[in-house]
């Protein structure tokens, strides 16, 4: 692993951190009676803003830029650390319970960002991806430590001279938190072991750079990582940008990938990934609270 490559990974991760860790957009999840549930930190970081405090406008400015010690306790304020704890009674213990969570949490056609439609295939689950020494991906049965893994694929159709953007969101439920944490750590190592990967069907990733964020910088999950590279495949219109993030809340991991297309900048993909990542984390919290 060269020094240049480490520096490149860090620069890409730093550029994306504000969007992927803070999220963007609005979670927009409703309860059955049409009202919003109590906002979690994930949805706050997905774009919710607090009502302005009239007292704040009357406070003198601090020339040193120090913050009010009570500021972090105000509605809508971002926490200094992620503090959500899953309700043990809501954590899946069986495969059936896990399947219910993954399908409720995974984003559907109206849930991610405007203009997205179902891809083909739309849903898949019950298998585990394996990256061989040859850097070719294949699928196998779920390991004993995994209760369920479920994926939905949503695309932004080609129009207005732009190509088709391909998005996917995956939710995985492990039997233990340690198993989910190991998935995060293994994922980081995969990009260093295989900076070029074959996805099958003529799809290929290259120049992959992956970095796990320092926990003190993560505000909407127990752990998060970011990966970026290039994508080529059938009808891709050449080499395109590719971004991917993975996060963990307790024994549940979420992953969001976005494959670029003609007419889209890397910043566009980061915005799409950040919006999807924040929303799916919020939905996981709803399932576990």
Can you tell me about this structure?
The chain is of the alpha+beta class. The protein has one domain: PknH-like extracellular domain (Protein Transport Mog1p, Chain A), CATH 3.40.1000.70. Helices cover 28% and strands 28% of the residues. An 8-stranded antiparallel β-sheet has the order 1-4-5-10-9-8-7-6, with helices on both faces. A two-stranded antiparallel sheet has the order 2-3. It is globular, with a radius of gyration of 19 Å. The termini are far apart. 37% of the residues are buried. The N terminus is likely disordered.
Brief overview, please?
This protein has 289 residues and is an alpha+beta fold. It has six helices and ten strands. The strands form two sheets. The protein has an eight-stranded antiparallel sheet, with helices on both faces.
Keywords:
289 residues; alpha+beta; Protein Transport Mog1p, Chain A; eight-stranded antiparallel beta sheet; two-stranded antiparallel ribbon; 6 helices
CATH H-level superfamily title: PknH-like extracellular domain
| CATH topology tier name | Protein Transport Mog1p, Chain A
Q: What ranges have pLDDT less than 50 throughout 5 or more consecutive residues?
A: 1-15, 21-73
Order of helices and strands: HHHHEEEEEHEEEEEH
Main sheet makeup: 8 strands, antiparallel
How many β strands by DSSP? 10
Number of helices: 6
Helix content range of the residues, please?
25-40%
Structural class: alpha+beta
Strand adjacency order, main sheet: 1-4-5-10-9-8-7-6
Strand content: 25-35%
Radius of gyration: 19 Å
The coarse overall form would be globular
What count of domains describes the coordinates?
A: 1
Give the second-level CATH assignment, the architecture. Answer: 3-Layer(aba) Sandwich
Distance linking N and C termini: 41 Å
Oligomeric state of this protein: single chain
Reading off the top of the CATH hierarchy, the class is best stated as Alpha Beta
- What is the mean predicted local confidence, pLDDT? 81
């Amino acid at each position: 692993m060269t020094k240049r490559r480490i520096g490149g990974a860090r620069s890409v991760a730093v550029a994306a951190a504000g969007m992927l860790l803070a999220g963007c957009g609005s979670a927009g999840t409703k309860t059955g009676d049409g009202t919003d549930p109590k906002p979690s930190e994930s949805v706050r970081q997905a774009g919710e803003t607090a009502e302005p405090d009239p007292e704040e406008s009357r406070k003198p400015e601090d020339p040193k830029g120090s913050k009010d010690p009570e500021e972090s306790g105000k509605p809508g304020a971002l926490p200094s650390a992620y503090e959500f704890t899953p309700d043990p009674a809501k954590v899946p213990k069986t495969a059936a319970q896990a399947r219910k969570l993954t399908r409720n949490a995974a984003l559907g056609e109206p849930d991610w960002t405007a203009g997205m439609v179902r891809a083909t295939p739309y849903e898949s689950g019950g298998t585990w991806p394996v990256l061989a020494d040859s850097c070719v991906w294949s699928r196998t049965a779920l390991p004993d430590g995994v209760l369920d893994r479920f994926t939905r694929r949503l695309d932004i159709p080609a129009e207005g001279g732009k190509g088709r953007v391909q998005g996917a969101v995956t939710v995985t439920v492990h039997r233990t938190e340690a198993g989910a944490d190991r998935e995060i750590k293994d994922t980081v190592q995969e990009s260093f072991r295989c900076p070029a990967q074959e996805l099958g069907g003529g799809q290929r990733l290259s120049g992959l750079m992956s970095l796990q964020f320092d926990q003190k910088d993560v505000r909407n999950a127990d752990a998060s990582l970011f990966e970026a590279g290039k994508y080529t495949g059938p009808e891709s219109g050449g080499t395109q940008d590719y971004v991917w993030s993975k996060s963990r809340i307790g024994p549940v991991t979420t992953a969001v990938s976005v494959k670029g297309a003609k007419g889209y900048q890397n910043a566009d993909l980061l915005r799409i990934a950040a919006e999807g990542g924040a929303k799916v984390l919020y939905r996981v919290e709803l399932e576990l609270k």
